[in-house]
Design a protein that fits this description.
The chain is an alpha+beta fold. It has helices at 2-6, 19-28, 32-40, 43-55, 63-79, 136-149, 175-193, 204-241, 268-274, 276-297; strands at 10-13, 30-31, 85-90, 94-96, 103-105, 109-113, 117-126, 153-160, 167-172, 247-250, 255-258.
Length: 319
């Protein structure tokens, strides 16, 4: 069964290979666990990832990652009992996309479902229940895994420490998101191949504008620090005045205007005291609606225009 799955992808490092080979294989390309940070992170994040590839990661695990590795076979064994799953095997092979071999992934498991067919699996350990069933970085990890393997379904399963059983979500292939992740992976690979230039593809006037913007950020940060230090003294004095109307005072270098504001909000305590059943029914309905919405968000997804990301950060050369 696993041979059939892997026929759709290149086997960069086979199951059971020495850890050194696996690390070398990961260092060569872009992996599913890195692609989210590459796609949404800053240049600093990309440089951190590249440094780990070139010089070895400084993170060698802790008690949480160790516990996560220990639980992987436990979660996979429970996931293998889910309805429709006919087989699910653990895997540590490093796989590559057949046409883009530097796009790589290491599924935690590979399996077959009676309806969904062949699928990959990603399993996680959590210390507590999270607000989102499938965090964005894990969603991207699963999507990139589907891109590398050519599969259309991924099982995302997790176990919360101290709880019996596991939680799971079936994630369907998202071609729009995969296209973005693949482009960002290629961009990272091209940047690396070019020597990871600090100035890459920027005209001189744009580079100068970035330097000015970075200087502005530094000045703004200094200004925010000054305001943060002064504000408690000002707020404390205003509180002593207990103004009910606009308060205006003139200082030697600045003027102060403070206008008290109020707003009307729902008094939850009064409502609960006056009609406990109605209040409890509404709270329960809201909680159930929120749970349904969260579940739906993991199934029904679409890509829509949003505010473009714009981030400029000093790279150490700003004066």
């Amino acid at each position: 069964m696993t041979d059939t799955i892997r026929n759709a992808a290149l086997i960069i490092v086979p199951d059971g290979a020495p850890d050194e080979d696996w690390q070398d294989g990961r260092a060569e390309g872009v992996t599913a666990s890195e692609v989210h940070s590459i796609a949404v992170g800053s240049m600093k994040a990309r440089r951190t990832i590249l440094d780990g590839k070139l010089n070895g990661s400084t993170f060698h695990g802790n008690q949480h990652t160790k516990r996560g590795h220990e639980l992987e076979p436990v979660i996979l064994a429970e996931a293998a009992q889910l309805d429709g799953v006919t087989v699910l095997e653990g895997s540590n092979a490093l796989l590559g996309h057949p046409e883009h071999p530097l796009h790589r992934a290491t599924p935690d498991g590979l399996g077959r479902h009676a309806v969904r067919g062949v699928f990959g699996a990603e399993v996680k350990r959590r210390e507590k229940t999270a607000a989102v069933d499938v965090p964005a970085d894990h969603y991207d990890q699963c999507q990139f895994g589907m891109w590398v393997t050519g599969l259309h379904w991924w099982l995302y399963a997790w176990k919360v420490e101290g709880e019996d059983g596991i939680h799971h979500r079936w994630i369907e292939r998202d071609e729009d998101r995969i296209a973005i992740l693949a482009r960002q992976a290629d961009d990272f690979i091209a940047w690396r191949a070019a020597g990871a230039p600090s100035i890459n593809g920027l005209p001189d006037d744009v580079d100068d504008a970035l330097a000015q913007y970075a200087r502005g950020l530094a000045i703004a940060a200094e200004g925010e620090a000054l305001k943060k230090g002064a504000r408690p003294v000002i707020d404390a004095w205003i509180a002593e005045q207990a103004p009910t109307d606009a308060l205006r005072r003139e200082g030697s270098h600045a003027a102060l205007t403070f206008t008290p504001k109020t707003k009307t909000v729902l008094d939850e305590d009064a409502w609960a005291a006056a009609d406990a059943k109605q209040h409890a029914d509404v709270v329960d309905m809201e909680e159930r609606a929120l749970m349904i919405r969260r579940a739906a968000e993991n199934v029904y997804r679409k890509t829509v225009p949003a505010t473009p990301g714009f981030r400029i950060a000093p790279n150490g050369d700003a004066a």
